[in-house]
Amino acid sequence: MNATDTLRLAVLSSVRAIGPAERRTLFDRATSIDPVTRDRTAAIVERVRRHGDDALCALARELDGVELAVLEVPRERQREALERLDPELRRALERAAANIEAAHRASVPRAVEVETQPGVVVGRRPDPLARVGVYAPGRRAAYPSSVLMGAVPARVAGVAEVILCSPPQADGLPSEVVLAAARLAGVDRVFAVGGAGAIAAMAYGTASIPRVDRIVGPGNAYVAEAKLQVSGTVAIDSPAGPTELLVIADESADPARIAREMLAQAEHDPRASVVAVVIGAGVAAHLVAALESALEAQVRLPIIIEALASRGGVLVAADLDEAVRFANEYAPEHLLLALAAPDRALARIRNAGTVFLGESSSVVFGDYMTGANHVLPTGGLARSWSGLSVLDFVRWTTWQRISPAAAECLADDVGTVADAEGLPAHAAAARAWRSGGAR
Question: Among this protein's residues, is 286 annotated catalytic?
Answer without folding.
Answer: no
